[in-house]
Amino acid sequence: xxxxxxxxxxxxxxxxxxxxxxxxxxxxxxxxxxxxxxxxxxxxxxxxxxxxxxxxxxxxxxxxxxxxxxxxxxxxxxxxxxxxxxxxxxxxxxxxxxxxxxxxxxxxxxxxxxxxxxxxxxxxxxxxxx
Length: 130
Hints:
130 residues, mainly alpha, Arc Repressor Mutant, subunit A, two-stranded parallel sheet, 7 helices, 4 strands, globular
């Protein structure tokens, strides 16, 4: 078949995303999971990446979180930390301490930019959502 000629199947197939729509982006999938992180809990970039079926894409989750301030409805990006509980995304917030302030308002203790008691505060989307 030539490059200009399409098969009948090529014209009919459209990928269906978890929402049932055909226009979800990877950021949409990331945000859908992030919106479900409960108050007072945190998850990691890698945990979200695994939940969307792309376990090696933690960096993409980080990019999504750094853009989350522009998204409506709001994304609780302050609840997403690195795999050791560090507030590695704090630079994306309006002040360098705002991520910590938001977490502490929800009862999450932070010391030296690290979530205290990370293991008990950790929310695993693979266990909670699937």
